[in-house]
Amino acid sequence: MNRILIILTAASISISILLVIMSYFVFREYTQIFSTILIVAVVVAAAPIIIFKYAESVKIKSLEDQFPQFMNDIVEAVRSGMSLPQDINLVSKNDYGNLTYYVRKLNAQLEWGIPFTKAFSRFAKSTKSKVIARIAATIIESHEYGGDLTDVFETISNTTVEIERLREERKLFLNSQIVSGYIIFFVFLAVMIGLQKYLVPTLTEISVRQLVAAEKIENKKLEMEYKSIFRNLIIIQGLFAGLTIGKMSEGELINGVKHSLFMMVFGIIIFGLLT
């Protein structure tokens, strides 16, 4: 997957560079078109990494959602008195969504004679989840140093459920902040539209009177320059507002990409239609 990502990233960067070079020689006199192509080039260059990271984040979230059920099944198997490898073999027949592949891979490694601590450590590392990695470290230490595994696994199972509950509570609590973020963006968009429709024409008329003798600047050209500036400000505001919302609601900046894309696309369309 990393090799594919590198190839796609290299290809997208090459396309972006060609777009920038082409726009420089063809559209550099047209500020609005040139700036639009630059924005498109940046999006094209970053698209493979953003898509890959977002898909990975969604996958990790789905693994963490299934992990509490996996731990509950382990607890039930441990209570029967079987060894941990036997417990893993038993629960590996269950369906855990995206986590199923990793559980069955763990079971296969145990059947090949790989020690439980080493196999479980690989299992946690392969999921790329920080939550699963921390819980796996506790399980490995408990297995190495002995103790009542039933109590240990019950405690860990309860902890995973509590972590998921707290995550959902945090998301609900921050919904008001998400709404506030969208309201702020829409207010900013309305301000930019108001400036472009009502203030800019007045400013450009004054500028034309002052500069017509020296440089013969046309009113329409100045309005287009202001429009390009305001449009770029809307894109910047949408990008960072969306990333902030993702960080607050889900704890990761990459989860704000969907909010950023919506705000930028919506903002550009509405700004273009109303101005």
In terms of topology, how is this protein built?
Layout: H1 2-27, H2 31-79, H3 84-91, H4 99-111, H5 116-127, H6 130-145, H7 149-173, H8 175-211, H9 219-250, H10 257-274
Plain-language structure description:
This protein has ten helices and no strands. With 275 residues, it is an all-alpha fold. The protein folds into three domains: 1-58, no CATH class; 66-171; 174-275, no CATH class. Helix 2 packs antiparallel against helix 7, helix 4 (99-111) runs antiparallel to helix 5 (116-127) and helix 5 (116-127) packs antiparallel against helix 6 (130-145). The longest helix has 49 residues, at 31-79. The protein is elongated, with a radius of gyration of 27 Å.
Could you estimate the helical fraction of the residues in percent?
over 70%
Chain oligomer state: single chain
- Dominant shape: elongated
Number of discrete helical segments: 10
The largest sheet is:
none
Work out the count of structural domains: 3
pLDDT averaged over residues: 79
Low-confidence stretches: none
Classify the secondary structure makeup into a structural class. Answer: mainly alpha
Instruction: Work out the radius of gyration.
Output: 27 Å
**Percent of residues in β-strands:** under 5%
**Helix and strand element order:** HHHHHHHHHH
Euclidean distance between termini CA atoms: 44 Å
DSSP strand tally: 0
